[in-house]
Amino acid sequence: MTDEIDQTLIAALMEDSRRSLKALAQISGLSSPSVAERLRRLEERGVLKGYTVEIDPRHFGYQLQAIVRVRPLPGKLHEVERLIQATPEFTECDKVTGEDCFIARLHVRSMEQLDEVLDRINGHAETNTAIVKKTSVPRRLPPMN
């Protein structure tokens, strides 16, 4: 489990993963070496899996974002999973319970590109697509306590 100081450090890193040890020390009330040791232990335990940067896909021409529910045809589950993994426009995908086997997020530059991406899968699965109008809750941590 994590304590209050760990949670403070994690929250600070979620806000800005580029924060220096010195800045994290000021936020947590610890010394920089103590912060470094805590981060090392959190990494070793798998609590912190990486440090990342967040980009806006629109700056690279990806004007549309879609959520796609995918139901593979009988016997096509693994093939569909490989197709999704091999398609770079799919930026996230979860294997889920229920009627659909996958729920995926993809970014495309146009409706035509959306059709092209989905056509690669449609011979192997049924899809149901929703265009994202707005992200009301951006990716965030669940409560840590």
| DSSP helical segment count | 5
Rg, please? 20 Å
Strand order of the largest sheet: 2-3-1-4
Strand content: 15-25%
Span from first to last CA?
10 Å
Strand element count? 4
Q: What share of residues is helical? A: 25-40%
The helix/strand order is HHHEHEEHE
**Secondary structural class:** alpha+beta
Low-confidence stretches: none
Shape: elongated
The largest sheet is: 4 strands, antiparallel
Mean of all residue-level pLDDT scores: 95
List keywords for this structure.
145 residues, alpha+beta, four-stranded antiparallel β-sheet, 5 helices, 4 strands
Characterization of this structure:
- The structure is a single chain.
- Helices cover about 40% and strands about 20% of the residues.
- The protein has helices spanning about 5-15, 20-30, 30-45, 75-85, 110-120, and strands at about 65-70, 90-95, 100-110, 125-130.
- With about 140 residues, the chain is of the alpha+beta class.
- The longest helix is centred in the N-terminal third of the chain and has 13 residues, at about 30-45.
- The model has no long low-confidence stretch (mean pLDDT about 95).
- Helix 2 (about 20-30) crosses helix 3 (about 30-45).
- A 4-stranded antiparallel beta sheet has the order 2-3-1-4, with helices on one face.
- The protein is elongated.
- Strand 2 (about 90-95) and strand 3 (about 100-110) form a beta hairpin.
- It is built from 5 helices and 4 strands, in the order αααβαββαβ.
